[in-house]
Specification:
Elements (H helix, E strand, L loop, with lengths): L19 H24 L1 H26 L4 H47 L1 H9 L2 H8 L2 H37 L1 H10 L3 H43 L4 H11 L6 H16 L1 H28 L6 H15 L1 H28 L1
Amino acid sequence: MPAVPSGRFGTPGRPLRRSSFLLGFTGALGVLLAYTLYLGIRNASGILVLVVIALFLAVGLNPAVVRLRRWGAPHGLAVAVVALTVVLLLCGGVVALVPPIVTQSGQFIEQLPSYVEDLRRNPTVNDLVVRYDVMERVQSAANADTIGRALGGVLGGAQLIFGTAFRTLTVLVLTIYFLVYFDRLRSLGYSLVPRSRRERVQLIGDEILAKVGAYMVGALSIAVLAGVTTFVFALIVGLPYPFALAVVVAVTDLIPQIGATLGAVIVSLVGFATSLPVGIACAVFFLIYQQVENYLVYPKIMRRSVEVNEVAALLAALLGVALLGVVGALIAIPTVAALQLILREVVLPRQESR
């Protein structure tokens, strides 16, 4: 199309909106905005992880709220009962784990002088102390810098404890909030979908939420069963702190693929520290119990509700641990179940219709 002359000022050029400078400037702004968004997500990654955990817990606990509402309880009362139950479980775990740790630490500190005295009476140890000038090295290491680093370690430990308590409280508050407004948040999410596709998205979304809830209930059931069985076994063989060990096994059993083995190793180490026969009994017990759990308990409780391929579950657990640690391992299997549902109901039919 020929340019329209404009009198004595010549022929107009291309519109500014098509200029290379404007395109480059707009692209640079887009890159800058994307990088700023990346920095924001990276800096807020800790809070985002807490939000994901709270959402996962809310989705898993919502069936309990729905069940209480069907029994005639008001929505607020149902949420309060579920939240109080979770708080009591957390308090029970803390009460079970903290006293053994404090007691064992106190006993070690009280017996430390006797351990040192026994070492000093050992001729071999004394020979090594003299040969390698251990006492001089210890005295040279006990300076202001070493004391400062030790104090920093103590403060770091206190910061870790208070940070963990703060994150736990944050997750608990967010979970209660999501439970209270669960229906509103779900409706808001579906309203963002175009109306022509809203019904199908709602059906698939409700199915995904149901699978996540079923996985949560199944995982908790398996963990409680493992904890109760460990508690009974610990009482029979005479392990110290049986309730604390049962809590450890139940918590670690929530981690897919590797959690049960981790709990078995911890209890077996405690058993070997007690006596050799008790340690062997622990190893044999967990070897038999894990076979029963993997081939009898887990298929009946989990596979009917989640239906995840074993290879996909293993790969998802490994990838989840690499990305988000224990949190990634916990949400890996329901995430794979949701992706399998979307693949089967959306992606594959679309490919077949082309």
